[in-house]
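Hi team,

Below is the intake form for ABC transporter ATP-binding protein from Vreelandella malpeensis. Please confirm the fields before the structure is written into the shared record.

FORM ID: S-0412
PROTEIN: ABC transporter ATP-binding protein
ORGANISM: Vreelandella malpeensis
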Amino acid sequence: MTPIIEVQRVNKAFGGLKVINDCSIQVEKGSITGMIGPNGAGKSTLFNLIAGALTPDSGHILLDGEEITALPADARFHKGLLRTFQIAHEFGQMSALENLMMVPPHQAGERLFATWFKPGLVRREEDEVRRRALEVIDFVGLHHVRNELAGNLSGGQKKLLELGRTMMTDAKVVLLDEIAAGVNRTLLGDLMGNIERLNREMGYTFLVIEHDMEMIARLCDPVIVLAQGSVMVEGSIDEIQRNPEVIEAYFGSDAA
Ligand SMILES: Nc1ncnc2c1ncn2[C@@H]1O[C@H](COP(=O)(O)OP(=O)(O)OP(=O)(O)O)[C@@H](O)[C@H]1O
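The structure came back. Fields below:
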């Protein structure tokens, strides 16, 4: 196994409340790893620690073998670790396509001197960004609404657009936080299909927090179950669903 994310014996408390408890996980490069657990288990806190929105009290976090524990979120982003919905939300008054074109950092068009002295270069880069944005909008199935204002898209279409914005970056690892919430089943099917394709065809690794078990079952292997801030079990969805400890944690002792 080649881990792309490693969380090593991480602890995090808020005031007196210990939320992450000597927690260690590994996410294998090229996997779609799921993370589930009862409410309050610490899933979002762990995501915040991995993405850099929070700093651990102790322990280490590695990306592709490199220690990132002390790096701020934007430095982690530039290393290819991306949390969806971390990029600013869509610009409602711009079209879906323009929203994708806004994503690439350091566009030459934004550099004043480049605009003055190298207009040809700026135009070429803009053409390239536009070509890529058109490819991406096809990929996420939003070609038919590419010229609609992003603010007029449905909630599910906005999530597809967000996934598209992820693809405009050079992300290697994407943290998906409860993306199924509020998305209708048809669009959710599209979203899952696109995540699978990004994984298979473009080598993205995903770490997914999700309450929607259908989505976990279709996409994720392995699945990590977090309880009280540390890993309770890890395995395939079938192993997880048969595990008496997991059943107990979710449904109480009566169900075990
Ligand atoms: N900034 C904070 N300050 C104080 N307590 C916090 C903070 N963030 C989270 N907590 C507490 O930490 C615990 C774990 O929260 P967290 O959101 O990580 O759990 P979760 O597994 O993501 O839960 P859910 O499935 O309900 O989203 C909860 O008891 C929560 O109240």
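SUMMARY LINE: The chain has two domains: 1-87+170-256, 91-168.

Thanks, M.
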